[in-house]
Design goal:
The complex is a heterodimer of chains A (543) and B (121). Chain A has 543 residues and is α+β, with helices and mostly antiparallel strands. Chain A is built from 16 helices and 21 strands. Chain A is elongated and about 85 Å long. The termini of chain A are far apart. With 121 residues, chain B is α/β, with parallel strands linked by helices. In chain B, 43% of the residues lie in helices and 27% in strands. The chains are: A alpha+beta (543), B alpha/beta (121).
Chain lengths: 543, 121
């Protein structure tokens, strides 16, 4: 396996102020001392307090993770903090078992932190780190040059008051500017620095080393450089995982040779003739980055559409005396809602699930979870004598407890069964309770509640049972539907919805669903939150 | 480490006040958690966490607060953080406790008033 030489991030690193500590057999007890010492160093260097607070917290989070989790106990820890001219960099190296599936956990860590209300008691550490810093990377022992695991946190310095919100704000695209000519490097840096986070690099080797730990949005490199030239840099970057996805622009003194087969095969995005003008350089950077964003959106859109075909919630429209209407809105940005169902002579057993989170990752996890639940659902249905919604949720909760992959994302789930006799059983795992609308217009919240999967322990889930009469309806929905009825974008309040239901009592399931969805759309227009998947299921008993 | 130097509990009619001192991090939470479980009355519903004397909070502290929140919920109560400032305040802001579950009060008196008001209602 290729070894990575940790990069000297900027040339000035050697002379920059540095704080270093080596600890044998680290424990929780060493954390307050290390935190105090590092804080003292940062305060002496007049580091803005927001940065100092953030790095002190991250130091503790990384060390407590190293102390707590690895199967092989850590015997030594090396901590290095560099105060670089434009950035702050913390490197925590350890000799224990590498952090398993770091990238996968990163994907959900921040969502998990923002979902603390779902009452998980642990797992917020990485979310804290990622929420505070613009650059977090991990190089495990197998890939590092010194055989240690390196947890590296770096922040570019912006004006001090901006720090607290810096990582949440729109960040500037990062551009690696590679040129052996110091004059050109300085001039091009100046031309781009207003709109881009420019990292100037004097040679291809530095660029390649840094590329392994920090991914830029664009590389602009001189073609002709001593030792490794721009073409070789492009080839080496393309050979790295996802390296060929980063757009690449050459700077060259002559157009001659740019149409050579060797250069064309490199798949560069553009080239510029030196001397470049500020307008020309900015225009090319903007166009190349714009095109990349466009392609990214198009591919992501196609990915969402492909997944949605499989995830789209659906239940049979009729099951014996039950009429069922399912409506759903799938948001590109939101998590994933999906349903499963299984029909037997005893009744229709169904599951409505909502994978939390936003964006492509949440959709992916929804897809993966749906496959997992489908297998579990089938196995539970086959094993169980009689249908019990609580048993299924208990199996799911046990699986989440034992499985790191499932524990990496959050899911709420509701299982229910509808019997031809009008009986219904409902069990919930962190899912908003369903609503009941009697034929006489009386509306109520059904007390079907339970902990989210993974938190049930052996206490288990309880099935709430109810008998419906002809014309009664049950409304099942996911957070994305209920939350829209929150007061002024606040927490969902069932009272709002309960007031809206009585006029729907005389309607059949399809008409009631259509009318309620219309009201939902109106509320949605006033909602300022990011759109989430929303699913509404109305099950009406015909008697 | 004397646990009494890390936190204290003051039960009152409308709420239970939990006052923390110093650091709430991995090194202290492992001691706080069992002590809190022993000392916090099981029926406590409305909980006020006094943050005035807290100098540092990490994710283990968040986990501890989640367990307090669960207890408050179990007993149909609420959780209020009072007078958090500096680094602990920033960490609380990062966490997804929304307004329906948790209250953030600028002063301890505001937290007292919150639960007194709830009783009046």
């Amino acid at each position: 396996m290729q070894k990575i030489q940790l990069p000297p991030v900027l040339a000035a690193a050697a002379s920059a102020p540095r704080w270093q500590r080596s600890i044998s057999a680290p424990s929780y007890a060493c954390m307050p001392v290390l935190r105090r010492e590092m804080r003292h160093f940062l305060d002496l260097a007049e580091t803005p307090p927001a940065y100092a607070d953030a790095f002190c917290l991250s130091l503790c989070e990384v060390i407590s993770n190293i102390v707590k989790h690895p199967p092989k106990k850590t015997t030594a820890l090396h901590i290095t903090f560099d105060l670089l001219p434009q950035s702050l960099r913390l490197d925590i190296a350890d000799d224990s078992t590498p952090f398993a599936s770091f990238d996968a956990i990163c994907k959900t860590a921040q969502s998990r932190l923002r979902c603390a209300e779902t009452l998980l008691e642990s797992g917020y550490g990485l979310g804290c780190i990622l929420s505070q810093h613009t650059q977090v990377s991990y190089i495990d022992a197998a890939r590092s040059a010194d055989g240690w695991n390196h947890f590296i946190i770096e922040d570019r310095l912006c004006s001090a008051p901006e720090k607290n919100s810096a990582s949440r704000q729109q960040r500037k695209p990062v551009v690696f500017l590679v040129d052996d000519d110091a004059g050109d490097l300085k001039a091009h840096h100046r031309m781009l620095s207003a709109r881009y986070d420019v990292v100037p690099l004097a040679d291809a080797a530095s660029a390649l080393a840094l590329f392994r730990t920090r991914r830029p949005d664009l590389v602009i490199s001189d073609l002709h450089m001593p030792q490794t030239d721009g073409a070789a840099l492009r080839r080496q970057i393309s050979a790295l995982p996802d390296g060929d996805l980063v757009p690449f622009v050459f700077l060259t003194a002559s157009a001659e040779g740019m149409n050579d087969k060797g250069i064309l095969r490199l798949g560069i995005d553009d080239y510029l003739l030196k001397p470049v003008t500020p307008q020309g350089l900015e225009r090319v950077a903007e166009r190349v980055l714009g095109r990349r964003e466009q392609l990214h959106r198009a591919i992501e859109g196609r990915f969402h559409r492909d997944l949605q075909k499989y995830l789209h919630p659906h239940l049979p429209a009729q099951f014996g005396p039950w009429s069922i209407t399912t409506l759903n809105r799938m948001a590109d940005a939101g998590g994933g809602d999906f349903t499963l169902h299984h029909e037997t002579r005893e009744g229709l057993m169904a599951v409505l699930a909502d994978v939390m989170g936003h964006g492509t990752e949440a959709k992916f996890f929804a897809y993966a979870y749906a496959g997992y639940l489908r297998s579990l659902f089938r196995a539970t249905s086959e094993k169980s004598t009689g249908i019990n919604t609580a048993v299924f949720l208990q199996h799911l909760s046990d699986a989440v407890t034992d499985d790191d992959f499932l524990d990496g994302t959050l899911l709420t789930c509701q299982s229910f069964h509808l019997c031809p006799t009008g009986e219904a059983g409902i069990a919930s795992a962190g899912h908003p309770p369903p609503l009941l609308l009697r034929a006489d217009g009386t509306a109520a919240v059904l007390p079907a509640e339970g902990p989210i999967p993974g938190m049930a322990g052996h206490a288990g889930y309880r099935e709430y049972r109810i008998r419906l009469c002809a014309g009664d309806k049950i409304f099942f929905a996911t957070d994305g539907f209920f939350d829209v009825f929150g007061r002024q974008g606040g927490t969902y309040d069932a009272d709002t919805l309960l007031r809206l239901l009585p006029p729907l009592a005389a309607l059949d399931a399809a008409a009631a669903a259509e009318k309620l969805w219309h009201i939902f759309d109106k509320y949605l227009q006033q909602d300022t939150r990011a759109p989430d998947d929303a699913t509404l299921i109305i099950a009406a008993y015909g008697g | 480490m004397n646990i009494n130097n890390i936190f204290e509990i003051q039960p009152a009619a409308d709420y239970t006040l939990i006052r923390f001192y110093g650091f709430i991090d991995a090194s202290t939470v492992q001691q706080i958690r069992p002590a809190l479980q022993r000392q916090l009355p099981e029926h406590s519903s409305n909980l006020i966490v006094d943050m005035r004397e807290v100098g540092f909070l990490d994710s283990h502290g968040i986990g501890l607060f989640v367990s307090l929140l669960k207890q408050a919920h179990k007993n149909k109560g609420r959780l209020a953080f009072a007078a958090a400032k500096g680094q602990p305040s920033s960490v609380l802001k990062m966490v997804g406790f929304n307004g329906g579950l948790v209250s953030y009060c600028p002063t301890l008196n505001d937290a007292y008033a919150l639960f007194a008001k709830n009783r009046a209602v």
